[in-house]
């Protein structure tokens, strides 16, 4: 039988005989204890323990396994062998995810069987199982995605951060699933929610949303793995994801306010995604040099391949900003929504991050940017507010200015300065 | 087989490869030599499509490596200088995984494993955990992994580092065997003596530039000889130029000369007889074994 070689190797490494026997043995001991606590029957303590253990295993242990399936390759210098192999991105992703976590799902299946035996109402079983399994898969996929990002940035010792996030995710999922497992009423009395006029329960929509998130995670994993395997890619997936998110979140805007808020929501999504892309992508000065070389050679296909992802959502934000400017979005308390000023703010912040990234310590770029942004958004405006120098506050936080022209001027000044410094630093590093 | 044209690769503040161009013929074993930091590993990684250069062109077996990196991966085998093995798997499992990952069908894996393990003398270690092997044996397993799919081009970065003399000798024999099978090899190393045994060509890389490409074993029928006379002979150069199939390379005080002699050992014997017949006071007539080290050092001397 021609098994997926990566899956087979992961099985050989992770599904040892000791684990095959050890996992049910340990779980058996735990459930024996809960059985005794439950007065020699499978009741509520066992139910909660089974579900809790399932979530902990698939999230914490599963995330660790998924992360190690990528980062361990780099640590043990076997990554080049994999990159040069004939395996395609799907084979790699499926092999790594399913192979490394099969032992986790083996333990998880035992927990779900115990849950099924002990659950007070079997009616909720399918709901709880669907939530638990898709959420577990999502956490594992997300961990793999983050580890691929970390690999690109050379941060191969990021296990603890990613696993920490996975534990956080496990608790979040747990807080949602646990009440469902206990009472049928929780599903029957579910609040309805409207999505583009379609009325459905929060539970159903959440489950669909988790499925969609899982889908995009798998697509993201495929793309990152394809890039690692040196398959040439254009940034259309990122663009599709941004458009999907705009359409998906736009569905929650009440029909009567759709016209007022749609562009604001779309604009916010583009800004958030631009920040996310710039912070997670690997930025090397040589990439920009390659980009300029391809542009000079009018090799547009190659240029698009080298284009940083934040540029895609930034351009999309500009496109959304045009209709947004005509809708005159309402102010948020003292803040005015000036789309152009906000775009310039984004450009300034990206410039700051890239400036630190092209420096001698790119590992510190994120923390230094965070510090700079705290100073620019918080400390300086606060000092000038306390000193009652509103004109100076406007310089750092132009959204409070009543004049659009002034706010644009202030931000243009800052952005131009940052990008000039960034250009100088880039020139020094190439 | 391999054509590299004006390849430029840059690290921040450093041009690692500066308009590198060369051609490697099919079936050759080319030694890639140069001091530390010359750009050897970067060049090999670019050729293996693991790194993306700023500009230039790399073609391996007519495949544009920069345009079609995955197609290039199919036909090359690469051993990196910091290679790794799956320490918790046995050697057989490691080889089986790489064989399958390189697209060898399950039913053909056993034969492929047997072939490479025989060639690298690791047949008796197939069921040993890779993590328990010595450095030399790990090196052999890594080379076995790199060639298990019978690639047309094999790129090896410091393949003999950490090997004992016996293992190096076996490695040289293996490379010659791979060459006979039609593979083209590019081997980078610091240890020139080790490359001597099998290299047909040499590429000298220095500060990111190819400063010399020489053929080492192409003219097997022409050999350099040193002729030393007991005492100087006035018209030595004129005398030697009258003899067929020899070329005077260097004359030192009409007593010591360097000659390039065409032909096999029988013709060399005839030449010696001829020299003695001309009543030359020959006291030494010996083949000069110009080694890779000499060629390399000479190149470096000329260029500096």
Greatest chain-chain contact: A-B, 34 and 35 residues
How many helices of chain A? The count is: 18
| Overall morphology of chain B | elongated
Q: What series of H and E elements makes up the topology of chain B?
A: EEEHEEHEHHHEHEHEEEHEEHEH
If you average the pLDDT of chain B, what whole number results? Answer: 86
CATH architecture of the largest domain in chain B: 3-Layer(aba) Sandwich
As an assembly, this protein is heterodimer
Features:
A: 430 residues; mainly alpha; 18 helices; B: 304 residues; Alpha-Beta Plaits; 2 domains; six-stranded mixed β-sheet; 10 helices; 29% strand
What is this structure's SSE topology?
The complex is a heterodimer of chains A (430) and B (304).
Chain A (H helix, E strand, L loop, with lengths): L4 H10 L2 H21 L6 H32 L3 H5 L5 H30 L6 H28 L6 H24 L2 H4 L3 E4 L2 E4 H27 L7 H15 L7 H23 L4 H12 L3 H7 L2 H19 L11 H19 L7 H22 L3 H7 L7 H26 L1
Antiparallel strand pairs in A: 1-2
Chain B lengths: L1 E10 L2 E11 L4 E5 L6 H8 L7 E6 L2 E2 L4 H7 E4 L11 H11 L4 H14 L15 H13 L5 E5 L7 H16 L3 E5 L3 H5 L4 E6 L2 E7 L6 E8 L6 H6 L4 E7 L3 E7 L2 H13 L4 E6 L4 H12 L1
Parallel strand pairs in B: 3-8, 3-9, 6-7, 7-8
Antiparallel strand pairs in B: 1-2, 1-4, 4-5, 9-10, 11-13, 11-14, 12-13
Helix pairs in contact in B: 3-4, 3-5, 4-5
